[in-house]
Amino acid sequence: xxxxxxxxxxxxxxxxxxxxxxxxxxxxxxxxxxxxxxxxxxxxxxxxxxxxxxxxxxxxxxxxxxxxxxxxxxxxxxxxxxxxxxxxxxxxxxxxxxxxxxxxxxxxxxxxxxxxxxxxxxxxxxxxxxxxxxxxxxxxxxxxxxxxxxxxxxxxxxxxxxxxxxxxxxxxxxxxxxxxxxxxxxxxxxxxxxxxxxxxxxxxxxxxxxxxxxxxxxxxxxxxxxxxxxxxxxxxxxxxxxxxxxxxxxxxxxxxxxxxxxxxxxxxxxxxxxxxxxxxxxxxxxxxxxxxxxxxxxxxxxxxxxxxxxxxxxxxxxxxxxxxxxxxxxxxxxxxxxxxxxxxxxxxxxxxxxxxxxxxxxxxx
Length: 365
Fold this sequence. Notes:
The protein has helices at about 15, 60-85, 90-110, 110-125, 135-145, 150-160, 170-185, 190, 260, 275-285, 345-360, and strands spanning about 5-10, 25-30, 35-40, 45-50, 195-200, 205-210, 215, 235-240, 240-245, 270, 290-295, 315, 320, 325. The chain has about 375 residues and is α+β, with helices and mostly antiparallel strands. The strands form four sheets. Strands 10-5-9-8-7-14 form a six-stranded mixed sheet. It has a four-stranded antiparallel sheet with strand order 3-2-11-6, covered by helices on one side.
């Protein structure tokens, strides 16, 4: 019987290696900053059995295998190219692999699972506060344009109507299914942006346990909702000396432009500045939930006074966006002017959406 994988990275090891020394060791600062140490990347951001669930094939680590082979494997090769300063702008295949990793990473961590659990608990408290809780759930779904059968209503009620909300096991499975089921649908919000690779010569970058950060529009209200559709930019520290900005394109107003932008023909590379390094590092520190990671030689970049570990992902009835960073240091936007789509490009985009919709872990129903 094959051995079941138990130690799961919620941030890929290959990614963390971009911030490690030649011995494969990375600096770790646990929030609020009182624990500072160095550890092997094989031990960083590891949670036991985080992606293991019951499957039809009896393989509890089918999801972990799926992530490793279908998501991380192709992306690792792209990261290696970028770190070796080869192949930028990316071709369509490599760009898709990197976008898939970024989209998946934004959904895969403990923060997303906590958010889902806290939302479910909040809904359960409201839904079960009256005798008509089940009917309230159905009415709310129908108000959102979703028709719910009696069987589906019973399933919804069983999910929510528990003393303290759904169990941890139920939330874990719901989180995993959400990651798989929504991947294809969220991809346009990543591939449909202009990408800028930022290379630093004299400045260095940090990262954290939630490395995908959303930048708020400078003019946006502080309490306005923030998500992948509304962010001015989505950023990722790629390595110690390289960062990626997925910048908003005004042509996203016309969804027909997405397949054209997704080809990468408008992507570019620029030299990093002090302001951009500050933006990346501030975003990583602000967005961290439990840990900040850095190259062992860059410990001085992590402030001594950090915020407490974040336990709550929703606040006052809405998603907490306190991790949002104003996009005051982003690059000048340079949206494409020619948005004519070839039939071939449009069909390629549709085919990729269909492909992502079909790939699933072995045995996940």
